[in-house]
Amino acid sequence: MSDTTLEHFTATFATTERLSPGDMARYRGRALERLARHARAQVPFYRARLDALFDSADRFVPEAWREVPIFTRPQAQQQVDALRAARVPEQAGATVEGQTSGSTGMSFHHARSALADLASNAMTTRLHRWHGLDFDKRLARITIDWSGRAVLPDGLCGGPWSREGTGEGWHLGIEGSDAAQQAAWLRRVAPSYLLSYPTAALAILRAAAEQGPPLPLEAVLTTGEVIGDDTRREIAGLSGGRVVDAYGTQELGQIAGQCPQAPHYHVCAESQFVEIVDAAGDPVPAGAPGRLVVTSFYNFAMPFIRYDTGDLATAGAASCVCGRTLPTIARILGRQRHMFTFPGGRSIWPQASSVEMLRHVPSRQFQIAQTAPLAVEYRYVPQQPGQSEDRAALAAYLRRQFDPRIDVSFRPCETIARLPGGKYQEYVRDF
Fold first, then answer.
1. For helices 114-130 and 3-16, what crossing angle results, to 10°?
2. C-alpha 92: how far from its chain's center?
3. Pair (378, 412) in one structural domain
4. Residue 365 φ/ψ, nearest 5 degrees
5. Buried-most residue among 57, 178, 314, 382 (CB within 10 A)?
């Protein structure tokens, strides 16, 4: 696909972010009809699945949208061949093969149209513009290194990190170095911006503070993990820069990005239709949590129509102080499978203050695992050998946060491994 297509997307999205609700609904309707007609004709998985969207005269019926069954990643893994289109429109560009990181326990081989990648790139560019990033400044990325070349001591410089400017893009693989080495590498590269996972960025900035003066970063761009309020505040405090979080998946591309003026996320509504639904598939009201279901408009090679990402999110308000009319997500909560469940059927998304926890048990790294219906294990890497700890106070705090009946145990560790793909889970359910 040409740079012209990317420029067209970028220019279009700069305008459509302020469409009226009616105009956005018409925009979405055209995109959904185009995708549904293609999928019904060319993709075996959808051949009968989308019948409800068309009447006897083959007219598109958007009111029947919720009659289309939601499908999950495990289903996609089982039906991967049936999800591939027999033919792809020429305007969708080449088909790009991809693979998810395997953080769900099994990697997923998927295909994307080049057009979908361009739309996602344009959404990323828009997010960066919202937050005032200068594309001529240097950016360093510390994430998984699939190439095997972004290694110490130099890392890898891949040319400009954005087509919008000349700023160098540097990369260091997270899997081949520790936080102290990564902090030292950042000092040598001296970027204006750091892109990494929230937990990794925080560990790097803490290591840098121990080594000497704080790293002077204008912005820390985070992705790939849920970012908590305490983590966000500490990253901003240690770096002196703003924190810009983006939410997406490898198979879908960018789905939402942080608003520059409010604490919620704006949906990339011109490239993704995002629904936050309850267990029955019905939309949840603002402020309520639900399953995050996405339809990607521009992937004609392997369409994802009403695809359950496996994540939970809280539905956002209908309007925003920034003036953009894009739908909002109040909060990304994380993976459904890591919800804590208790006897009697009660389920919660676990949240606790890292500041409070580290005050009682100083830790370089922590993970809270529910190991049984009424048992939680606090796994941690101690800040210092032989440190003073108030485990009783932390156990009492966790009981207040989760359930007063739980048994809390503690397991000091030398390190807590990241998931395949470099991501990290602070809360897990192990039963």
1. 50
2. 25
3. yes
4. -155, 140
5. 314
Which residues touch 130 (CB under 8 Å, ≥6 apart)? 257, 259, 260
Work out the burial of residue 115: count CB atoms within 10 Å of its CB; fewer than 13 is exposed, 13-18 middle, 19 or more buried: buried
What b/e readout covers 346-365, taking b as 16+ CB neighbours within 10 angstroms?
Answer: eeebbebebeebbebbbbbb
Name residue 159's amino acid: G
204: pLDDT strictly greater than 90: yes
Determine the Cα–Cα distance for residues 1 and 13; give it in Å rounded to an integer: 18
Burial class (CB in 10 A: 0-12, 13-18, 19+), 203: buried
Whole-angstrom distance, CA of residue 431 vs CA of residue 338: 10
Same domain membership, residue 16 and residue 120 = yes
Confidence class of residue 103 from pLDDT cuts 50, 70 and 90? low
Domain boundary among 334, 368, 399: 334
Q: Which residues touch 388 (CB under 8 Å, ≥6 apart)?
A: none
Q: Which residue, 277, 302, 334, sits at the end of a domain? A: 334
pLDDT digits (tens, 9 = 90+) for 356-381: 999 999 999 999 999 999 999 999 99
**Residue 95: which residues within 8 A CB-CB, separation 6 or more?**
88, 111, 112, 113, 114, 301
Length of the chain: 431
113 close to 87: Cβ distance less than 8 angstroms: no
Q: What is the DSSP code (8-state) at residue 283? A: B
Same domain membership, residue 50 and residue 192 = no
For the chain, first and last CA: distance in Å? 46
Burial 378-388 (b: 16+ CB within 10 A, else e): bbbebeeeeee
The pLDDT, as a whole number, for residue 423 is 82
Domains of the chain: total: 3
Q: How many CB atoms lie within 10 A of CB 377?
A: 18
Q: In what order do the strands lie in the sheet with 407-412?
A: 407-412, 375-382, 363-372, 427-429
293 touches 70 (CB < 8 A): yes
What residue numbers bound the domain in which 190 lies? 134-217
**Closest among 275, 297, 300 to 288, alpha carbons compared:** 275
d(CA 48, CA 41): 10
Instruction: Determine, yes or no, domain membership for 239.
Output: no
pLDDT at 422: 80
What are the helix (H) ranges across 79-113? none
Tell if the pTM clears 0.85, that is, is over it: yes
Q: Residue type for 360, please?
A: H
